[in-house]
Amino acid sequence: MLSLTRFLALAALLTCATSSWAISWLEAGDAGDTLIAAQHVTDPGVTAILGSLNDNQDADIYRIYVSNGASFRAETLQDFPTLMADPTLYLFRADGTAALFATDGGVGAQALLLGHAGLAPGFYYLAISSVGNFAVNAANQQVNAINGRVFDHWSQLGTQRGSYQIMLQGVGVPAPSAALAFGAMAFARRRKRRFCSRGDRLRVARVKLAA
Questions:
Q1: According to the model, what pLDDT value does residue 65 have?
Q2: Are strands 48-53 and 73-76 parallel, antiparallel or unpaired?
Q3: Any idea what the Cα angle at residue 68 is, between residues 58 and 19, rounded to 5°?
Q4: Residue 78 pLDDT exceeds 90
Q5: 115 Cβ partners below 8 Å, 6+ apart?
Q6: Average model confidence (pLDDT) for the chain?
Q7: CA 50 to centroid of chain Cα atoms
Q8: What letters, b where the CB count within 10 A reaches 16 and e where it falls short, cover 111-132?
Q9: In the chain, which ranges are E strands?
Q10: Contact 123, 64 (CB under 8 A)
Q11: CA separation for the pair 9, 11 (Å, rounded)
Q12: CA–CA separation, 68 and 88 (whole Å)
């Protein structure tokens, strides 16, 4: 939940100030901690997610569309003292297995997820939690990007709470199918024909009235 609204607003402004094309997604209410309850990120071209974890055992999950697996990147930053010092990031597939996982790799103890050519474009679930609050399966075994275990719940052993900032690359919206594009063009042509036909009738009516 956004308990530090003023901070997040400031962070959003600063994020935008660093890049003319930056688009920040602000956590709406409290993002869910399961795939079903994940918050859907719908803004095209989003480059940052800003939110906060309510307590040490909280986790937030966002449904995002990875448009380019090779250039995908998700990195937590600690530009402000109030941001979490040691978060953990996951990128889950729709079946609950982890495509990517990181507890560090960024600046200091910050988490960094790096995509690769084998990461297919599609919808994924980006999760953030405190270090220690790991994703586990139904048998309480830790889930990571190697063991193929299916995420079921969180270990509830976190040590931190607070606000977070996740910078993103390679995220967008799915391209429309050729069929949809063709349908849209056909619809536009029909609308244009109807409009032109109606315009022609109006012009004929005006000519008759003038006569």
A1: 96
A2: unpaired
A3: 75
A4: no
A5: 66, 68, 69, 70, 71, 72, 73, 100, 170
A6: 81
A7: 11
A8: bbbbbeeebeeeebbbbbbbbb
A9: 24-26, 39-40, 48-53, 59-66, 73-76, 87-92, 98-102, 112-114, 122-130, 135-136, 153-154, 162-169
A10: yes
A11: 5
A12: 22
Q: How far apart are CA 2 and CA 159, in angstroms?
A: 19
What is the length of the chain? 211
Burial degree of 61 (CB within 10 A; 0-12, 13-18, 19+): buried
Tokens of 169: 């690359």
Q: Is the pLDDT of residue 32 over 70?
A: yes
**What average pLDDT score do residues 102-122 get?**
94
User: What tokens does 78 get?
Assistant: 């600690």
Instruction: Enumerate the H helices of 119-177 as residue ranges.
Output: none
* Residue 120 amino acid letter: A
Q: Please name the amino acid found at residue 118.
A: G
The whole-number pLDDT of residue 171 equals: 94
What backbone phi and psi angles, to 5 degrees, belong to 126? Answer: -90, 120
